[in-house]
Batch of 2 targets.
Target 1
Amino acid sequence: MAKKIGVFTSGGDAPGMNACIRAIVRCGLQRGFDMFGINDGYRGLLEDDIVQMTRHSVSEIINRGGTILGTARLPEFKELEVQKKAVEILKRYGIDALVGIGGDGTYRGLAALSKLGINTIGLPGTIDNDVGSSDFTIGFDTALNTIIECVDRLRDTSSSHQRCSIIEVMGNRCGDLAAYAGLATGAELTITPETPITKEAVIEFLRQQRAEGKKHAIIIISEKITDVHEFAREIEARCGFETRAEVLGHMQRGGTPTASDRVLASRMGVYAVDLIAQGLTSVCVGIVNNQMHYYDIEKAIELPRHSSAEFVRMSTMIG
Ligand code: F6P
C-alpha cells in the first residue's frame, strides 16, 4: 500500500511556503506516495480538515506569497490531551509521515507528536530567520527585500526633508531582518535584540551626526524593543532632529517570493521527501553552508538562534 504523507503550514505565513508545498506534493507523488494537505495548521488538523492532493492542487503557486493551505497559531497545542487528539486523527487517516512548515512553535508541536509515535519532519518557514538549525529560513529573503524597498523609499523622502526616520521591522526577538536590512540600506544605526543600545546613546549619536553636518538619518530597529512613535517624539524633542516613525508591519510577510526563497523552498521540499523515502523522521531540515542537512528535531529546538551582531558592527562602521 502507498505511504500516506500529510503536509501543513503553521505559525506566521512566509513567502515561499507555497513553493515548498508544491515541491513536497509533486516529489511525493513522483515517489508513489499518497499526498494529503492539512488546512490551517494544527487547528485544521484537530478539526479534521484534511484533503487529498494531486499534481494540480499545487499548479500555479510557485510564484504566490502566503500559503494555499492556510495557517494558524494554536497555543493550546502545548497540551497533551490536544496532541493526543491530533494523533488519533492522523492514525485514522493512516498518515505515515507528517511534514510541517513553520518556525519554532511548529517544531515544538512536531516534536511532541513524534514522542507520541507520529513520524514527523519540520521545515523552516518564517520570515524571522530565527531557526537555529538552518542558516536561512523560507521567507526571510523575500521579507528582507521588501524591507529594503521600503527603506530606500523612506530614505528619498527623509533626505529631502532633512529628517530622521526610525523604521521598525519584524523578527520576533531575532535581529536578522534588521541587521541585514541595516547593512543593505546603509542605515546610520541598527538596533536589534542582540545589539541593544540605550536611548541616551541613540540621542547622543544623533546629536553628533548633526554636529558633523549630517542632515538626515535612517534608524532600523527590531520590533518588541520600544514604542517607536514615542521614541521618535523623544528624539525630536531632545535633538531637534525632525523624526518620523514607521512600523512596516505585516506587509513584510506578503508578496511574491524571491528567486532565492523559491529555490530554497523547492530544495527543502524535495530533500524532506527524500528523507521520508529513506525512512528518516523526527527530524527537521536545514541549510548549512548551502548544503541540505537534517537534525534531530528535539535537539534543533534547543539550538541558539542566529546572532547578527557582526552585521550590526559592520553597518555601524560604514553607515
Ligand atoms: O513569526 C513571524 C512574525 O511575523 C513575527 O515577525 C511577528 O512578531 C509575528 O509573526 C506577528 O504575528 P501575528 O501575525 O500573529 O501578528
Note: The pocket of 6-O-phosphono-beta-D-fructofuranose is lined by residues 11-12, 73, 103, 126-128, 170-172, 223, 253 (CB under 6 Å).
Target 2
Amino acid sequence: MLRGKHILLGVTGSIAAYKAAVLIRLLVKEGAEVRVVMTPLAKEFITPLTLATLSRHPILVDFFDPEDGRWNSHISLGEWADAYLIAPATANTLAKMAGGVADNLLLTTYLSARCPVFVSPAMDLDMYAHVATQENLGKLRRRNVSIIEPEEGELASGLVGKGRMAEPEKIVEALQRWFSGQKKRGLSGKRLMVTAGPTREAIDPVRYISNHSSGKMGYALAEELAARGAEVFLVTGPTQLSVKDGIHRIDVVSAQEMYERACEIFPETDGAIMCAAVADYTPAEVSDRKIKKDDGSWALELRPTHDIAAELGKNKGSRLLVGFALETDHEHSHAHAKLERKRFDFIVLNSLRDAGAGFGVDTNKITILERNGSETAYPLKSKRETAVDIVDKIENYLLSPDSRPSE
Ligand code: PMT
C-alpha cells in the first residue's frame, strides 16, 4: 500500500525521537520513499546522521544551508509529499501548528503542505491531558489532521499513563489504512468491464472445445477495481468462482455470447480489461445430437470467432482498452503485435514459459507493455497482488489522461 509513496517525516524534540529510526526503516521496507525534516531541538535527541542513513536522503533542519546559503524550500517539500507525518509530535509543536506559528522548517512545511497530515503525539501524561493540548488537538482534527492516538504505558518521566508515542508499527498501519481508503475511492464514478475465464465452443450436446482458464486473474481484477470504487461488469465464461457483492456478473458460455454481451456493455463504460481466454475458433456446425463414434478418423471444421477486443478497439473513442497476451514463444513481439492490432492502451503479457504464470495457478508473472514502448516487468506474485499492479496502471491512465501515450 505504501509502495512508491513519498512520506515526509517531521521529527520534533522528544525522547520518543529514537523511534523515528525504526519508523523510517519500516516505511522504507514497505517501499515508501522517506525524507526527514527535524526541528532544531530534535537533533539533541537523535542524530541527523542516523536518520539520513536510514532514509537515504539528507536531513533538513534549517531554512537554508549555512554553508552555501542553499534554500530548503518548504513549499517543494510539501508538494513532494504524499503524506506528512509528524512523529513524535511534542505539545509545543502541536500548539504551534494549531496557532499557525511558522518559526522552523517543520512548521512552515506544515502550513504549505497540500497532502494529508498525520501527527503522533508524544509527551508526559499531564501535558497530554491538559486542556490546552486537547484544545489544540481538537483544532487540528477539525482541520483534517489525523491524530494517531498515543498509547498508555511507562513514560520517560517514570510516570505511567497516556502519552507514549504510538509504536512505529501502529503508525505505519495508520498510513496504510489511509492510503487503502484513498485507493478505494480512486475509481469511484468509473464504470469498467472485465472479461474473464474461458469460453466453451459446443461440438455437440455433450462435447465442447475450451481452454484451461480458471477465471482467477480476471476475477481478481474485477475485485480490485470494485475495491477502488469502480462499478464493475464482469463478463465471464464458465468458472468455479463466485464474486463479491456489488460486481455485476454476466455469465456467458461461448465466444459469440461473450462478443454480444461485451459489445452491448462496452459503450456504457469508461473502459474494459480483456482477460478472458476466448476461443479463436469454433465448430463450423454444431450437431444437435451426440456424434457417434466410429472407427475412422474425424475432421472437425472450425471457423474463426469474432475477435472481441479488436472489435471494441475499432470504436473505443476515449475509452481505455487493456488487453492480455498469453504466449508460449516470441512473447514480446507477439504481445506488441496484439497491442497494435487490437488498439489496446496497454497489454499485460504473461508467458506459459514462466513457472507459476498463466492458467489455473494462484500466481502470475507479468510484463506491462505500453504504446510508448515502455515495458515494466513484475516479479512472480499472487494474482490478487498482480491485479493491484495492473489496476494501479489503469487508475493512472484514467485519472491522468495526459499521462496516456497517444496512438
Ligand atoms: O483465468 P486464469 O486461470 O487465472 O488465467 C489467466 C489467463 C492466463 C487466462 C490471463 O492472464 C490471460 O492471459 N488472458 C488472455 C488469454 C488470451 O486469450 O490471450 P490471447 O493472447 O490469445 O488474446 C489476446 C487478447 O485478445 C486478450 O486480451 C483476449 O482476451 C482478447 N481476445 C482474444 C481472442 C478473441 N476472440 N477475442 C478477444 O477479445
Note: The mean pLDDT is 93.
